[in-house]
Specification:
Layout (H helix, E strand, L loop, with lengths): L9 H27 L12 H19 L36 E3 L12 E2 L5 E4 L3 E5 L5 E6 L11 E3 L2 E4 L2 E2 L2 E8 L5 E6 L13 E3 L2 E6 L7 E8 L5 E11 L11 E5 L5 E5 L4 E5 L12 E3 L4 E7 L6 E7 L5 E6 L9 E4 L6 E8 L8 H10 L6 E7 L5 E6 L31 E2 L5 E4 L5 E5 L13 E5 L9 E3 L2 E4 L6 E5 L1
Antiparallel strand pairs: 1-32, 2-3, 3-4, 4-5, 6-7, 7-9, 8-9, 9-10, 11-12, 12-13, 13-14, 15-16, 16-17, 18-19, 19-20, 20-21, 22-23, 23-24, 24-25, 26-27, 27-28, 28-29, 30-31, 31-32
Helix pairs in contact: 1-2
């Protein structure tokens, strides 16, 4: 067909050709059967329903497999959570023993706030975004370029690497402006102002799937996000928006790579949308309030894992949903308050696929000493933090690791003097855990700033002291470290940024 000559129609035409190949195969088989049975009465013009259904299935599957690509895996750490699954799991091994210290640091002399995980491209270059500037370093620490937002703007959303560009979302007076920046030169490709949208300023994560740039907005609420917005990654032109009846915090949509997007609310409502903005299904309890500052991620096994709290004072859970229809596979009550998005990955070669669920106490903003002492007393004199590893198929506990207590209600470093215009970091209880290819789990404390490596080396279900390595940054983390082969990059809220290399 003439339409097939268009380069934009290449993938649909592959499906079209598959359909007609199946029809041809049916006719050949039918004629062969007729000859073998010496029968001239077989009608080979009609196609049985089974073949027609198979043709449709193959055509749809061909479209899914050839149209949608995980471009995020062109880089070692392309966005918060690493890739489109947002699973915070990587197949490569990174430094796990911190005893020799970092290979180099970026001191963050301006005391800027670092709200997100550094990004790592295919050449091991590192991109670190503060609320005012975006910097690119080589893996050995050479500063290559710096890009600055406009003076009145703040960058609270996590950037994303995509096809040679890095995308950011500065906002001024809660009005967002998307910008695409050339990764090689640090120069702007384009920017687009969205005067009709509102950005609440929480630590959301930008996403790009199949050329569609996704970010969150607030339509019917004052805090958090209740709206998914889609624009073109090529130029920022508006495409569509979907308004939910729930509240997402630190919004981080994920995708199984099939042209759909999944995300969950702070109270456990899960949504699956097409890349055209159509709701495919909705599952879980619904509350238009902030239950706890967590959400969900996609696993590599056809399941979506939502961490949440039922109401502001209710129990916390991890629930596994079938991506196909939203049905619940298992639901596990957590022993403590949900604290962050989970991670999903294999705990080393031959190890189980696990869900790493962060649990812990929320922090407070700096206040007067009397109020802080009263709050600490209400918390039992110390704040608690832990991570629990669950079997991804059943929800059964694999192991549990407790962080050291924090005898304060304010995050480490939040009382210090910061750069001009910088407020408190006020992070969640901890960053998202990270799972490396050898099964090492990295945790980053928002209480005291400890960066830990945990690995159940003897597989006995107990984390012994010798199975943990700790590096004390003494500055709170808002988000996780990032990993690449032989390299780990960790950036606490107030710096420095630490780079560990094998």
């Amino acid at each position: 067909k003439p339409f097939c000559l268009s380069p934009f129609a290449l993938e649909p035409c592959r499906a079209y050709l598959l359909v007609h190949m199946m029809r041809a195969l049916w006719h050949i088989l039918c004629l062969a059967l007729a000859v073998a049975n010496h029968c001239d009465q077989v009608d080979c013009h009609d196609e049985p329903p089974a073949v027609s259904m198979l043709q449709v299935h193959l055509a749809q599957k061909a479209l899914q497999q050839t149209t949608y690509h995980d471009d995020s895996r062109a880089y070692y750490w392309s966005n918060r959570g690493r890739d489109v699954l947002r699973s915070s799991s990587a197949p490569y091994k990174s430094p796990s023993n911190f005893s020799s210290g970092p290979s180099w640091i970026w001191p963050n002399d301006l005391k800027e706030q670092v709200r997100h995980s550094p990004l790592i491209d295919a050449d091991m270059n590192i991109y670190v975004c503060t609320t005012t500037r975006l910097r690119k370093f080589t893996s050995s620490g050479t500063l290559l370029w710096t890009w600055s937002a406009e003076p009145a703007q703040k960058m609270t959303a996590s950037p994303v690497l995509y096809k040679g560009s890095i995308y950011v979302l500065p906002h001024e007076s809660h009005i967002p402006t998307a910008a695409s920046i050339d990764m090689a030169t640090g120069t702007m490709n384009w920017k687009r102002h969205y005067a009709n949208l509102t950005h609440s300023g929480d630590a959301e994560s930008l996403s790009i799937y199949n050329g569609i740039f996704l970010f969150g907005a607030a339509t019917n609420i004052m805090k958090g996000m209740d709206t998914l917005v889609a624009v073109r990654a090529a130029d920022g032109n508006y495409l569509w928006e979907y308004v939910t009846d729930a509240v997402m915090w630190n919004f981080m949509p994920s995708s199984p790579g099939d042209g759909t997007v999944l995300f969950s609310s702070t109270c456990g409502t899960v949504f699956r949308l097409s890349l055209e903005g159509e709701l495919l299904w909705r599952a879980g309890p619904g509350h238009q309030l902030v239950c706890v500052a967590v959400g969900g991620v996609t696993g590599p096994n056809g399941l979506f894992y939502a961490e949440y709290r039922e109401g502001r004072d209710g129990a916390s859970y991890v629930t596994a949903h079938n991506i196909s229809d939203g049905s619940v596979v298992w639901k596990r009550e957590l022993p403590y308050r949900a604290a962050q998005y989970p991670a999903v990955g294999q705990l080393g070669p031959g190890g189980p696929l696990a869900v790493l669920a962060p649990i812990g106490d929320a922090l407070k903003l700096p206040s007067d000493p009397e109020s802080e002492a009263s709050l600490l007393k209400q918390s039992g004199g110390a704040l608690s933090n832990a991570v629990i590893a669950l079997d991804a198929a059943t929800g059964a506990t694999l192991w549990h690791s407790q962080d050291r207590p924090w005898n304060d209600t304010v995050a480490a470093g939040d009382r210090d003097k910061h750069g001009e215009g910088e407020g408190a970091c006020w992070p969640d209880a901890q960053g998202i855990p990270v799972i490396a290819g050898d099964g090492s789990v990295y945790t980053s404390s928002s209480h005291h700033g400890d960066l830990r490596t945990i690995r159940d080396a003897d597989a006995d279900g107990i984390i012994s002291p010798w199975e943990v390595s700790t590096f004390e940054t003494k500055q709170c983390f808002l988000n996780s470290p990032s990993v690449a082969p032989g390299m780990l990059v960790a950036a606490p809220c107030w710096g420095p940024m630490y780079v560990f290399k094998d």
